[in-house]
Amino acid sequence: MSDQKRVQWASKIGFIMAAAGSAIGLGAIWKFPYVAGTNGGGAFFLVFVLFTVLLGYPLLLGEFIFGRRGQTNAIDAYKQAAPKSVWHLTGYVGVAACFLVLSFYSVVGGWILLYVLKAVTGSLSGLTQEQYGTVFGTVIENPIQTLAAQLVFMIMTVAVVAKGVQKGIERVSAVLMPILFVLFLLLVLRSVTLDHAVEGIKFLLVPHFEDLTPESILYALGQAFFTLTLGVSVMVTYSSYLPKTQNLPGSAGSIVIMNVLVTLFAGLAIFPAVFSFGFKPDEGPTLLFTVLPAVFDRLPFGSLFFISFLAVFFFAALTSAFSMVEIIVATVGKGDETKRKKLSWTSGLLIFLVGIPSCLSYGVLSDVHLFGKTFFDLADFTVSNVLIPLGALLISIFIPLKIPKQELFAEMKSGSAIGYRFFQLWYFLLKYLVPLAIIVVLLHLTGVLSF
């Protein structure tokens, strides 16, 4: 039985903007540049795009079909399709993953806020790259500042989700996402017109397959799932608010295209500028906080461009955070909108509290390790390498196994004009190729399979 008083997105484009906002987050803007920078550049990007199209798109469309079919929260959707089974635990995996992701994701959101303040006040001008590294270390080691910034980020996130699907998430995403694209285009145009920018463009777009390693290929697969918010039932929840008139294959395609474009924009905004000023692209996770400020500082109106980049960075983080709180609220509230505000603020507070150890991982708790990792790194590892691949595997197995093929085709066809051949290709990819690829990744991560 679907949730009572189930709300819906106000428009088709509103849903696409909200879902794209969920997908286009730190994975595309923060994680992709440094992962690509350390894993072969153009070859990594090409493999990432192939995985996004061949594996990410089928799984995303599968979550859309399953979510709209159920018209309820993720856990109850599994109970509907497979009653008296344990498949509903897949929904709990998704909720747990979102909760844990946001507990450390909000920490990075707080860092961005602090950098926005520093950039606006001129504290990030005229320094050397080494000094920028020192500034970043000072920022993340300060417990009071980082906790306050993390709290502000969570308050901003919850304030939007508490207003509801239409008046909160959809309305804000519909404003932020176009701004994000416009700012990104301006940054790309400035970056690619720099002297010697062509070297950075070649690094991103010209594949050198000799630079690829088996680990690089596995990272590309994980990146494809991470950047589309797959495997955590967020898209199952978002699509449960859809009417039957929504074109699901088209919507999924639009989101995949936007995600690839933003990932491309991130590379084109960063690598040409990095190469233009003689920096290295393999700085790792701190690339955006230590190298980019130094790069932008050497440009005319560099402070303005860096603030614009931070705004893009922040908007992307915020729209992704909306979806993670929403799946928790939708699951616990079961569609009762009268409970939304209370559940949103309660969830936000709990996420903040759980995220405190991650926030302090680079300061007072830097010497505290579990399984050889800081709290921040352990949370990131658990989500990226365990919960997301596990959730994606379970969903890719569940949908073809528990929902009749004709029902899947009817749901896909509702609102679209796709033919049965397209459906058969999608069904094959989801049933066989997606789970096989995920199993290979999991076996490699556990050491059972090596290359």
TrEMBL record:
<dbReference type="GO" id="GO:0016020">
    <property type="term" value="C:membrane"/>
</dbReference>
<feature type="transmembrane region" description="Helical">
    <location>
        <begin position="86"/>
        <end position="117"/>
    </location>
</feature>
<feature type="transmembrane region" description="Helical">
    <location>
        <begin position="299"/>
        <end position="322"/>
    </location>
</feature>
<dbReference type="InterPro" id="IPR047218">
    <property type="entry name" value="YocR/YhdH-like"/>
</dbReference>
<comment type="similarity">
    <text>Belongs to the sodium:neurotransmitter symporter (SNF) (TC 2.A.22) family.</text>
</comment>
<feature type="transmembrane region" description="Helical">
    <location>
        <begin position="343"/>
        <end position="365"/>
    </location>
</feature>
<protein>
    <recommendedName>
        <fullName>Transporter</fullName>
    </recommendedName>
</protein>
<keyword id="KW-0813">Transport</keyword>
<dbReference type="Pfam" id="PF00209">
    <property type="entry name" value="SNF"/>
</dbReference>
<keyword id="KW-0812">Transmembrane</keyword>
<dbReference type="InterPro" id="IPR037272">
    <property type="entry name" value="SNS_sf"/>
</dbReference>
<feature type="transmembrane region" description="Helical">
    <location>
        <begin position="217"/>
        <end position="242"/>
    </location>
</feature>
<feature type="transmembrane region" description="Helical">
    <location>
        <begin position="12"/>
        <end position="30"/>
    </location>
</feature>
<keyword id="KW-0769">Symport</keyword>
<keyword id="KW-1133">Transmembrane helix</keyword>
<feature type="transmembrane region" description="Helical">
    <location>
        <begin position="385"/>
        <end position="404"/>
    </location>
</feature>
<feature type="transmembrane region" description="Helical">
    <location>
        <begin position="174"/>
        <end position="197"/>
    </location>
</feature>
<dbReference type="InterPro" id="IPR000175">
    <property type="entry name" value="Na/ntran_symport"/>
</dbReference>
<keyword id="KW-0472">Membrane</keyword>
<feature type="transmembrane region" description="Helical">
    <location>
        <begin position="144"/>
        <end position="162"/>
    </location>
</feature>
<feature type="transmembrane region" description="Helical">
    <location>
        <begin position="425"/>
        <end position="445"/>
    </location>
</feature>
<dbReference type="GO" id="GO:0015293">
    <property type="term" value="F:symporter activity"/>
</dbReference>
<feature type="transmembrane region" description="Helical">
    <location>
        <begin position="254"/>
        <end position="279"/>
    </location>
</feature>
<feature type="transmembrane region" description="Helical">
    <location>
        <begin position="42"/>
        <end position="66"/>
    </location>
</feature>
